[in-house]
């Protein structure tokens, strides 16, 4: 395979941020990491580039002139464009992150960030969006092995015929793990997802929520069907997951 052919097979990433220093650091790093990269300095230019070039994944800052990252995301989803989107958010803005995920973002990363972490998130997003059916981040229903079904719109879950009684944070944890199926999620990241930075909560609170889910699911931590513990690191959802457009009762 020639160098040109190899380049054509590299994933195309669009990065939109109005801070020149961010683009100046991120773009060459992504290129060195094996991606082709498009850069945009505002949201309207990003939309134009996405429509013209159909990138494999988009990295959008939430604070940009013209149109911010969430506005770009909403415009894409209204057009039924399901390109994976990773949002760059401001540390501490838990409400912004929650709204972004509800509106169809595939993931988010807090600024400032380690570029190695950005590359890892991009690769993880690409892995989990290369599946049949709607992308997991936008699917109204998540379905896993052994009859586990999660209605993200109604905020309800079933295991076979039995509806599960789960606390709101337990449901959010289950949903996040399923959307990030087979990805190692460390406790600090789960802590941020569940509580943000506004509350002084230790990582043991995450372990308590995982224990809650295991009780509800009847899961044996030693032989997990769904949630595996990665010792000293965090958790991984090991069950197969696919998305569906609407809930079918079983």
From TrEMBL:
Residues 12-126 form the Response regulatory domain. The keyword DNA-binding applies. It comes from the Bacteria. The modification 4-aspartylphosphate is found at residue 61. SUPFAM superfamilies: C-terminal effector domain of the bipartite response regulators, CheY-like. Keywords: DNA-binding, Phosphoprotein, Transcription, Transcription regulation. Pfam families: Response_reg, Trans_reg_C. Residues 139-239 form the OmpR/PhoB-type domain. Residues 139-239 bind DNA. This is Response regulator transcription factor. It comes from Brevibacterium metallidurans.
């Amino acid at each position: 395979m020639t160098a040109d052919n190899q380049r054509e097979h590299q994933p195309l990433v669009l990065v939109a941020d109005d801070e020149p220093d961010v683009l100046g650091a991120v773009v060459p790093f992504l290129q060195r990491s094996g991606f082709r990269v498009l850069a945009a300095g505002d949201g309207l230019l990003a939309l134009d580039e996405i429509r013209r070039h159909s990138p494999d994944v988009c990295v959008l800052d939430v604070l940009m002139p013209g149109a911010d990252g969430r506005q770009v995301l909403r415009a894409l989803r209204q057009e039924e464009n399901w390109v994976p989107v990773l949002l760059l958010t401001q540390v501490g803005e838990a409400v912004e992150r929650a709204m972004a995920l509800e509106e169809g973002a595939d993931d988010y990363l807090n600024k400032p960030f380690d570029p190695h972490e950005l590359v890892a998130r991009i690769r993880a997003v690409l892995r989990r969006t290369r599946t049949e059916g709607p992308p997991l981040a936008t699917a109204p229903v998540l379905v896993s092995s052994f009859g586990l079904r999660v209605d993200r719109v109604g905020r309800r879950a079933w295991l076979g015929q039995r509806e599960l009684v789960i606390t709101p944070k337990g449901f959010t944890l289950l949903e996040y793990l399923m959307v990030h199926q087979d990805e190692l999620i460390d406790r600090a990241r789960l802590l941020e997802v569940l509580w943000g930075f506004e509350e002084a909560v230790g990582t043991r609170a995450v372990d308590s929520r995982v224990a809650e889910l295991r009780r509800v699911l009847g899961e044996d931590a030693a032989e997990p069907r769904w949630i595996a513990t990665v010792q000293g690191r965090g958790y991984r959802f090991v069950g197969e997951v696919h998305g569906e457009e609407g809930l079918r009762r079983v």
